[in-house]
Amino acid sequence: MYSKVYSAIAYGLSAQLVSIEVDIISSQLPGFSIVGLPDKSVQESKDRVISAIKNSGFDFPRKKIVINLAPADKLKVGAFYDLPIAISILKATNQIDTLIDLDKLIFLGELSLDGTLRATDGVLPISLHLRELGDFDGIVLPYDSANEAAIVKTHNVYGFKHIKDLIEAINSNELNNYKHIYREDEEEQNYQYLFEHIVGQEEMKRACLIGVAGNHNMLFVGSPGAGKTMVAKCIPSILPEMSEDEMIEVTKIYSSAGLLENKSLIKKRPFRSPHHTSSVVSIIGGGRIPRPGELTLAHRGVLFFDELTEFPVSAIEALRQPLEDRCVTISRVNATFKFPANFIFVGAMNPCKCGWYGDAERQCTCSSVEIERHRKKISGPIMDRIDLQVWVRRVPTQTIASSQNNINTKYTSANMLDTVRRVRKMQLERYNKENFTTNSEIPSSKVDKYCKMNDDAKSILLNFMNKNNLSMRSYFKILKVALTINMIENRGEVINKESVLEAIKYRITI
Ligand SMILES: [Zn+2]
After folding, report:
1. Which domain-ending residue is among 130, 148, 178?
2. Do 403 and 464 reside in the same domain of the chain?
3. How far is the CA of 490 from the centre of ligand 1 (A)?
4. Domain that holds residue 254
């Protein structure tokens, strides 16, 4: 007795169809084997499937059962296959009798011993893959995962709490009663940190505005208590809205990382702030079938490294590729995984080991060797990739005291967000025929086309380059920042002197 049902496997951020074949052989001694490159977690399906079938009132055949997961060259992990294995056994033993064409459905889900279906991670990449394939009518899965699958509206999603309900619905041709309609989750709209609540620090706020408007990376260097962390935490309040495609892209990443708590579309751009004690794998991503790390979880949003110099050098250096190519590559024996990592990087650090170098009120106690060693933690290539570098001074205590209860009106989150929206729209229109959307992403080959300067601006920039012996990469970075400033100030198509002078200000040599 043979039968086959379809399931799927999430593989990195993509998915692949898996067919589950069952053969029940009467002439051999009873037994149960799974072949087709299953790992240990899939082997454990056997016990769950046997108990779930028996405890749901169905018969489990006392015969030799062979399950084959195809294609056999891809490693299968997780408890995804419990449900399709159970369905194919029930089908092969004629316990399913229906007019519904089961070959048009994908089954996936973990079973508990009593037959209850449990939510599984990574459902959205599978649902998106189904949309690409187009040959299937729908997907059958645990009720708690149904909303996530239903984000994609091109096919039906059927959610079940118990395998018994599912078999009854199939046998009575009433699957449609379990069709899941996508439910939007109400996202919290208020932000905890707003720019108007921060006293002073206009330069840091201005840098945040430029950085977010043009998608530029930022670094704040300054003594403890200067407000670096507070300012960084205000950034989410000025991030522009995502497009529908970007929302799906971000949600897919969280789905495959098992971090999609609300099981619905993520609408806000992510703000990730891993601690400096986080493992390098959790930052880059990893695992046998790699899962995305912090660099990818920050995709389309912000990655904030507070206390940057406290991070292990390997974690800081891991930023090099994503800051350049906007993706992370993880190699495994059989395959190479490429995860997107297009984020705004924001770093905050003390200027020296004791933290008080350059402070107006306190004396730095570090030796010049210690200062040197502290700064060397951020290598030249990493510094080169940070467009906006701001030296932050502490706001004098008197100023803080006198401006308490006064709301700063020059930089409020609301008017900064208005500017960001306007400047982002200009960029979308300007680059609508390109494969990038923001100023910071302009490739070197197109800098001449998109970053035109007037003569005054050009001579100032060349002079600065020669004086400081800066790399070509730095030259391009300054130019792109100047372009964003030009757009913020509505200075027209050609970058002028003022924009270049301001962009140069954000290159501190630490
Ligand atoms: Zn010091």
Report:
1. 178
2. no
3. 41
4. 195-431
State the distance from the centre of ligand 1 to the C-alpha of 221, rounded, in angstroms: 13
pLDDT in tens, 419-472: 999 999 999 999 999 999 999 999 999 999 999 999 999 999 999 999 888 888
pLDDT at position 192, please? 87
0.85 cut: is pTM over it? yes
Rounded Cα gap, residues 420 and 68, in angstroms: 54
Distance 370 CA to ligand 1 centre (A): 8
- Tell me how far the alpha carbon of residue 399 lies from the centroid of ligand 1, in angstroms: 25
Residues 57-79 have pLDDT tens digits of 999 888 899 999 888 777 777 77
SS3 88: helix
> Which tens digits make up the pLDDT trace of 286-297?
887 788 999 999
CA of 359 to the centre of ligand 1 (A): 9
Edge-first strand listing for the sheet containing 14-25? 31-35, 64-70, 14-25, 2-11, 105-107, 138-142, 156-160
Expressed in angstroms and rounded, the spacing between residue 365 Cα and the centre of ligand 1 is: 5
Question: What is d(CA 291, CA 328) in angstroms, rounded to the nearest whole number?
Answer: 11
Same domain, 153 and 219: no
